[in-house]
Amino acid sequence: MSIRELLAKRAAVTAEMRTIADKPAGEGGDLSAEQETRFGVLKTELAAVEKNLAVQTLVDEAERRIAGNWIEGTGDQRLDTALEGFSLRRAILSQMPGHTEDTSRERELSQELARREGRPFEGIAVPLSVLRRPATQRDIERRVALASADGAALIATTLEPGMFVDILRSKLVIRNAGATILDGLVGNLLIGRLDTSVTAGWVAENSALSLSDQVFDSVELTPKTAGSLSEFSRQMLLQSTPAIEMLLRNDMGAVLARTVDSAAIEGGGANAPSGILTQCPCPTEVASWQGVNDMVTELENANVPIDQGNVSWITKPQVKNTFRNTRRLSGSTDSITIMDDTNTLLGYPLQTTTNVPESSADAALILGDFSSLLIGYWSVLDVLVNPYETTAFTKGNVQVRAMLTCDVELRHIASFACRNIHPA
């Protein structure tokens, strides 16, 4: 049984329990014997539905994440394993004069990546795992540094990487929603698509069939470049603590990953990919129960496979808040709201991110089969260090530039339903 069916059953059971509770037929305002029996049966049914709902939600979430796996790999398992331990900090350090740390591993891996890419890099080649596998607290260990050789050396300075205060970043949702990731592309990617199928019909005896042809078109991904320019302290890069690796990955990697996420959602601009909201009609509507049901119906009418685990909602936090505070039935006094679950709406996962655009009081809401969203990567990261940039040089800092080539495209625009939601 799907999540939608389980939610519908839970709603029906809850409604019947409410009817019994509101209209007791026994003496003194108590339930009658028949009502008590029925209420007990409904209570058991509700517990079973809740249990099945939890199981189905877990399975659907696992399937949805599988759908978002990267289509990648160098074909060399030993190289892929070696790249998992690649250090972004040492890669940057390898381009700085005067360092004493051994960076031969990163240089060797970068040379191999560049060789397989078949092109030279201005800086050093960095694997895309920097984007999708940022450093976590598991990568961090405690480091004690002694201050100096005099009496102060007896006082230890404790560095707590877990206490580092990072910027509040927008959450990345596109890959979790099940987008199809294509890695290691070479040249423009042209994917054939069946636009119009043949037709069939009933004919009378000895009558001729009507001729119908398939119509094909294509989805094309072309390289587009995103980049970031950062400045880091030379002393920070010389420190070997894993906290610095976490900082670099969570800053440089997350910034570029967020840029791709934002392009997939909205896109637009002369040099940026065309995202979902750029290609899909997005009328403005007041938040309503009927409205969200209409979006599901829109996908069903387009023959989108809505029960295969790839369909998700993406919106801004303010829309989720509106849904959780707007009653399903206008003027009703009950407490049933448009979104009565924590992270699902109509049985489909709902994710929020500030990468979703807004206009005045309105914000976009997307429902779609995200396996139809293609994100293609043409190269690994190209990281170039400039320790001699004038401003950075005077402060003893290092300027770092990271470039990434990718594109975003939709297999079928009809796989997505979009609205600008206005608070009720």
Low-confidence stretches: 65-71, 133-167
What is the CATH class of the largest domain? Answer: Alpha Beta
**SS-based class:** alpha+beta
* Main sheet characteristics: 7 strands, mixed
Distance between the termini: 33 Å
How much strand?
A: 15-25%
Keywords:
alpha+beta, 12 helices, seven-stranded mixed β-sheet, about 425 residues
Question: How would you describe the overall organization of this protein?
Answer:
This protein has about 425 residues and is of the alpha+beta class. It has two domains: about 70 residues; about 325 residues, Major capsid protein gp5 fold (2-Layer Sandwich). Helix content is about 35%, strand content about 25%. It is built from twelve helices and 18 strands. The strands form four sheets. Strands 1, 2, 5, 8, 15, 16 and 17 form a seven-stranded mixed sheet that branches. Helix 1 packs antiparallel against helix 2. It is elongated, with a radius of gyration of 28 Å.
Question: In short, what is this structure?
Answer:
The protein has 424 residues and is α+β, with helices and mostly antiparallel strands. It has 12 helices and 18 strands. Helix 1 (3-22) runs antiparallel to helix 2 (33-67).
Would you spell out the secondary-structure blueprint of this structure?
Elements: H1 3-22, H2 33-67, E1 70-71, H3 77-83, H4 88-93, H5 104-117, E2 124-126, H6 129-132, E3 143-146, E4 156-159, E5 180-182, E6 189-196, E7 215-221, E8 224-233, H7 234-238, H8 242-265, H9 276-279, E9 284-286, H10 289-301, E10 311-315, H11 317-324, E11 344-345, E12 348-352, E13 358-359, E14 362-369, E15 373-377, E16 381-386, H12 390-395, E17 397-410, E18 416-422
Parallel strand pairs: 1-5, 5-15, 9-18, 10-12
Antiparallel strand pairs: 2-16, 3-4, 6-7, 8-17, 10-14, 11-12, 13-14, 14-18, 15-17, 16-17
